[in-house]
Every structure is written in C-alpha cells, then in structure tokens.
Design brief:
Length: 100
C-alpha cells in the first residue's frame, strides 16, 4: 500500500497509489467483514485488516492475512464464537417473483 520511490541518492521521488482492480479507486488501509460459507454454516469474521477501495469498498487481503484466515477456517470449530447472529433467508422467487 502506497510504496515510496527513491532516486539513486536515496531522495524520495513520489508516492505510488495502489488502485482497485474493479473500479480504479484508491486503496487505503482499513478493515472489512468476511462472510464465508462452510457447508450449510455461515461464518462471519469482522475487523479483518485489508486495503479497502475508497470508491466501491472492495477489500484486498495481504497474503499473510489470507494465510492466517485459512488456518483459522481449518479449525474454526475449536473456537468459541464471539456471538451468534440470526440471519434471515429468502428464496429468489420471494426476492424477484416467479418469471419462469
């Protein structure tokens, strides 16, 4: 995120701004919420560090964050959740009507 360029004398040249692959917006350090399905179970992981697009809110995870989350997801059942959420579920027919 925001790499610094230096000339041969070590003087700062300019800032390079990381851009979103989807919309071209500027990425800044922030946090995101991940929703991950494991079979029929929905897991919500809040406050995940990420570079977040300031225009569309697309989040980009660093490799080390992604690796740590993969490890957690392999053994999430061993951890006590912070809390449980009630999540309503609707069918596409309910949401959009039957247009067969």
């Amino acid at each position: 995120m925001g790499k610094q360029l230096h000339n041969q004398k070590g003087e700062k040249m300019s800032n390079i701004v990381d851009r979103c692959d989807l919309c071209g917006g500027e990425l800044k350090p922030g946090k995101t919420t991940l929703e991950v399905w494991r079979g029929e179970e929905l897991l919500v992981i809040r406050d995940v560090p990420a570079d977040v697009c300031q225009q569309c809110n697309e989040a980009y995870l660093a490799a080390d964050v992604s690796e740590r989350l993969d490890h957690f997801l392999d053994e999430y059942h061993c951890h006590q959740p912070e809390r449980y959420l009630a999540v309503p579920q609707y069918s596409a027919v309910q949401a959009m009507g039957d247009k067969s």
